[in-house]
Automatic annotation (TrEMBL):
<dbReference type="InterPro" id="IPR005190">
    <property type="entry name" value="GlnE_rpt_dom"/>
</dbReference>
<dbReference type="GO" id="GO:0008882">
    <property type="term" value="F:[glutamate-ammonia-ligase] adenylyltransferase activity"/>
</dbReference>
<dbReference type="Pfam" id="PF03710">
    <property type="entry name" value="GlnE"/>
</dbReference>
<dbReference type="InterPro" id="IPR013546">
    <property type="entry name" value="PII_UdlTrfase/GS_AdlTrfase"/>
</dbReference>
<keyword id="KW-0808">Transferase</keyword>
<keyword id="KW-0547">Nucleotide-binding</keyword>
<protein>
    <submittedName>
        <fullName>Glutamine-synthetase adenylyltransferase</fullName>
    </submittedName>
</protein>
<dbReference type="InterPro" id="IPR023057">
    <property type="entry name" value="GlnE"/>
</dbReference>
<keyword id="KW-0511">Multifunctional enzyme</keyword>
<keyword id="KW-0067">ATP-binding</keyword>
<feature type="domain" description="PII-uridylyltransferase/Glutamine-synthetase adenylyltransferase">
    <location>
        <begin position="300"/>
        <end position="438"/>
    </location>
</feature>
<keyword id="KW-0460">Magnesium</keyword>
<dbReference type="Pfam" id="PF08335">
    <property type="entry name" value="GlnD_UR_UTase"/>
</dbReference>
<feature type="domain" description="PII-uridylyltransferase/Glutamine-synthetase adenylyltransferase">
    <location>
        <begin position="790"/>
        <end position="910"/>
    </location>
</feature>
<feature type="domain" description="Glutamate-ammonia ligase adenylyltransferase repeated">
    <location>
        <begin position="43"/>
        <end position="275"/>
    </location>
</feature>
<keyword id="KW-0548">Nucleotidyltransferase</keyword>
<dbReference type="GO" id="GO:0005829">
    <property type="term" value="C:cytosol"/>
</dbReference>
């Protein structure tokens, strides 16, 4: 087929533009010349493309348009990443121009037009993805991936959704994408690096396709069809997506997956993923509940877009409005969902094919299918012309008579009134054919059936402070059916309702929060999720409901910004406040929002227990770093600037190691550098020792005092020299002398995790140099092994395990493994702070063998996961069964165990092995006795 076989022609609305375009192509004659004049005379956008691609188009009009498009797409292969943006945009201009002319001239059917645009989207997405993945691999950002893996996205796949998925892409369409990666291709150690790499690729991919440059753009991209887009990262693992759809997938998402197909990257992995979703999309039994769900969606769209009321052509939305494209799509997809589970022949992703299949199987009359098909094609062609005018993403009919004239000429109609009459008739016919299919709207949302106990609980809500005002009651009444329905759908409805009741009862007021919920319904999902899973977080929310503001802020679900950026944000906020008490309150509000964010990310599975631990520690360090100069400035106003060289705050314990849980306190030491003879220069001068002691107490008060906004952290300073008996701040000279001559072995163990977290950087560097020297010096102490063994015995007696689920205390559990890790670091004289690095130092020093390291890390990772996860959910977990199904599911998923019984067995086995290895290591002060056996078992 060539451009010689024209079946229709547009009429130039702007005659001068048409003549000018015709003159630009003197080599064309007859109908081809008329086609160019008509297209340019109706569309400024097409006129611009013709001018920009004149020579290419003149040649293309003499060839088969399908072959020309194929050649253009093939030329994209192998384009370097540095040139890809410009080349993709050139391909977009050419394919868009050729498809438009083939459409306007009737050379191509609607199916061929949308197919060519979809082919371009597929090719552009694939070459962009593979180029970006290749760049990640070249920069060694994607673990265990080779250059050859780039061709298949190294396990990443892009699913085309919506019209792109159905190969029905319209002329100026967004492309709806879901980006996933096959986590099974990566080891547990590489998983998080791989995920971060794929998230980067996805963000760059969107920019490469959608950014406007001097060359134009390729396609606007939309990633919001992915699971829970307000919560999840832009690229997520297939396993996480499967879990979401299995537990939370909704009817509209089932409908969306009718059109889904892999279009870029690892197409085989994408096909496997879609196969796993088949039971979710296609139910085994007839699913008439989908009708009401679809009807509700239609009503919401109309209400949201303001599309109700009588039909009027001016400004009418031909996609979403009455009798529009979406009505036909909903009609088709809903009937497919009803019966497609039983009959695979009904599962076509394409609207016209779906209508034909439904008619063939007797689900709709043949004449209805034929009418809707004809109306659909004409609606889509008008949609294309609306978009061709200025390359605008619009489906709205013109509002002025002049612009109606333009569209009429664009479709080849010289009489605008005739065009309007036919269009109005088609819209009304579609509305009549589809409206009766959907259930009528009752106007009142029904509440679920509740137990008598639940009804009694709800009856008491009117007495709560949050519901005392009439306005709060009115707003809550509108939300109540939705809330109760979502609570009723939780894994344990009664437990979820109890937690929601506690949340509601703890609210001091309701109007603002309820208004926030009503304007942002996703928050209802969040609070129900929290109530169904984490009693601790639900109780926290009732006391700190203002943290919901952060969820709406726009960056709540973005990646963790890192400690420097957090410090900058808080420091900037505090610098804008000139009152000390208000600064302390502001720090509490800010930290509370970020703390809540970490908990939600952990609860939703966006981060694991180790990432959460690092983020809690990062947040604490940012708070300490930003608040220290605020406290110093306030203290200096009374007593003068700090004497000497200032002070540094050391984080000890878990803070020093950079890993905290949701309720960790902070172990701190303050060290200053000043002679005892020095005094401050201020209104109320103090000698150096008194100055830093009182400054330290002021800092502790700033952290721990319960202001109107609560407290920031609990602080423990017992790791300072001489413990509770020593001064709260220690001079660097006294600290060094104490560590060299008086400190016990346990204090040297504590030193293995010390790290500056606030205060003087120079002093912090000096302390770090001293720390490293002390560890090397004390590593050869003759009593280190015995002291640690004795300390371990005392800990075991003083802090026994509280049942099998206590991951922290007891032989072979967190404290025990951390103790032997610190022993390894001390004995090796190594500066490592985290457990993993300390055990590795022990291996290098011959204290442990590799097999022992592996088994200890296995126990440590399980114990930390249980400890961090458990502290997010409740104060103490004596029995997992007490958490209810939601909490149990979260813990089991976090630990990767299929059942509580399996998890209990695994925990006991891991801890028993760890206990044996620790005892053996300390008994030998070197490689464990079972080294040969361990090596043999590897």
């Amino acid at each position: 087929m060539t451009f010689g076989s024209l079946t229709r022609l547009p009429l130039p609305y702007d005659a001068e533009s048409g003549r000018s375009a015709r003159d630009s192509f003197p080599e064309l004659s007859g109908e081809l010349s008329d086609l160019v004049a008509g297209a340019a005379g109706c569309s400024p956008y097409l006129r611009t493309l013709m001018s920009r691609e004149r020579d290419w188009l003149a040649d293309a009009l003499g060839r088969d348009p399908a072959a020309t498009v194929s050649d253009e797409l093939a030329a994209l292969d192998g384009v370097p990443l540095s040139n890809l943006s410009a080349r993709l945009r050139q391909a977009k201009r050419r394919v868009a121009l050729l498809a438009a002319l083939a459409d306007l001239g009737g050379v191509w059917t609607l199916d061929q037009v949308t197919g060519a645009l979809s082919d371009l989207a597929d090719r552009a997405t694939h070459v962009a993805l593979t180029a970006l993945v290749a760049d990640e691999i070249a920069r060694k950002k994607l673990p265990a991936a080779t250059p050859e893996d780039a061709a298949t996205g190294a396990g990443m796949v892009v699913l085309a959704m919506g019209k792109m998925g159905a190969r029905e892409l319209n002329y100026s369409s967004d492309i709806d994408l879901i980006c996933l990666f096959d986590e099974s291709r990566y080891s547990a150690d590489d998983y998080h690096d791989a995920r971060a790499s794929f998230i980067r690729v996805t963000r760059k991919l969107c920019g490469l396709l959608s950014d406007h440059t001097d060359e134009g753009y390729v396609f606007r991209t939309d990633l919001r069809l992915r699971p829970d887009p307000s919560v999840t990262p832009v690229c997520l693992s297939m396993e996480a997506a499967e879990r979401y759809y299995e537990s939370l997938g909704r009817t509209w998402e089932r409908a969306a997956y009718i059109k889904a197909r892999p279009c870029a990257g690892d197409l085989a992995a994408g096909a496997r993923f879609l196969e796993t979703l088949r039971p979710f999309v296609w139910r085994k039994h007839l699913d008439f509940a989908a009708i009401q769900d679809a009807h509700d969606m239609r009503l919401k769209i109309k209400a949201h877009k303001g599309l109700g009321g009588a039909l009027a052509l001016e400004g009418h939305d031909i996609k979403l409005g009455q009798g529009g494209i979406r009505e036909i799509e909903f009609f088709t997809q809903t009937r497919q969902l009803i019966a497609g589970g039983r009959d695979p022949d009904l599962r076509s992703p394409r609207t016209v094919e779906g209508l034909a299949a439904l008619a063939a199987k007797g689900w709709i009359p043949h004449d209805v299918a034929e009418k809707l098909t004809a109306h659909y094609i004409e609606h889509r062609e008008i949609e294309h012309r609306l978009q061709m005018v200025q390359d605008a993403q619009t489906q709205k009919l013109p509002s002025s008579p002049q612009e109606f004239d333009r569209i009429a000429r664009f479709v080849g109609e010289a009489q605008t009134n005739a065009f309007r009459s036919r269009l109005e008739s088609r819209l009304k016919d579609v509305a009549e054919l589809t409206e009766g299919f959907f259930a009528p709207d009752s106007g009142v949302e029904a509440e679920p059936d509740l137990s008598e106990a639940a009804q009694d609980m709800i009856a008491g809500w009117h007495s709560y402070a949050a519901l005392r005002s009439n306005r709060a009651q009115e707003i809550f009444k509108r939300m109540r059916p939705t809330i109760l329905t979502k609570l009723h759908d939780a894994a344990d409805p009664e437990a979820a309702l109890v937690q929601f009741d506690r949340f509601l009862s703890g609210l001091p007021a309701g109007v603002q929060l309820f208004s926030l919920f009503e304007a942002n319904p996703q928050l209802i999902d969040l609070i129900v999720d929290i109530c169904a899973t984490s009693p601790r977080l639900a109780a926290y929310l009732s006391r700190n409901a203002a943290v919901f503001d952060a969820v709406i802020g726009g960056g709540f679900f973005a990646q963790w910004p890192g400690t420097p950026e957090l410090h900058r944000q808080l420091a900037d906020r505090l610098a804008q406040i000139d009152d000390y008490e208000r600064q302390l309150d502001a720090a509490r509000i800010w930290a509370r929002e970020w703390h809540f964010r970490v908990g939600v990310h952990h609860l939703r599975g966006l981060i694991d227990a180790f990432e959460a631990g690092a983020e809690y520690a990062s947040l604490a360090e940012a708070v300490l770093t930003a608040l220290w100069p605020v406290v110093v400035a306030d203290f200096s106003a009374k007593h003068g600037p700090p004497p000497g060289q200032g002070a540094a705050v050391l984080g000890m314990g878990s803070l020093g190691a950079g890993r905290l849980n949701a309720v960790s306190d902070l172990d701190l030491i303050v060290i200053y550098d000043a002679d005892t003879s020095e005094t401050s220069q201020g209104r109320r001068p103090l000698d150096a020792r008194s100055y830093y002691a009182r400054l330290t107490k002021a800092f502790l008060t700033a952290l721990t005092a319960p202001t109107a906004e609560g407290r920031l952290y609990e602080v423990d300073m017992r790791l300072r020299p001489s413990g509770r008996q020593g001064p709260v701040a220690t001079s660097i000279t006294a600290f060094e002398n104490y560590q060299r001559n008086e400190a016990w072995t346990w204090e040297h163990l504590a030193l293995t995790r010390a790290r500056r977290v606030a205060g003087s950087v120079a002093l912090g560097d000096r302390i770090e140099t001293l720390r490293r020297a002390l560890l090397a010096e004390k590593s050869t102490g003759p009593t280190v092994c015995k002291d640690v063994a004795d300390m371990r015995a005392r800990l075991a007696e003083a802090k026994p395990a509280h049942g099998i689920w206590d991951a922290k205390s007891g032989p072979g559990r967190l404290m025990d493994i951390e103790l032997v890790a610190q022993f390894c670091a001390l004995r090796a004289g190594h500066p490592a702070r985290r457990v993993e690095a300390q055990l590795r130092a022990g291996v290098k020093a011959g204290i442990l063998d590799a097999a022992a390291e592996t088994q200890l890390l296995r126990a440590y990772r399980l114990c930390w996961t249980l400890q961090a996860t458990g502290r997010l959910l409740a104060d103490r977990i004596s029995d997992i069964d007490q958490l209810g199904p939601g909490g149990q599911k979260f813990i089991l998923a976090s630990a990767g165990s299929p059942s509580t019984e399996a998890l209990a067995t695994r925990l006991q086995d891991c801890c028993a092995q760890a206990q044996h290895l620790i005892a053996s290591t300390l008994a030998n002060d070197g490689p464990c006795k079972d080294k040969t056996d361990h090596d043999a078992s590897q």
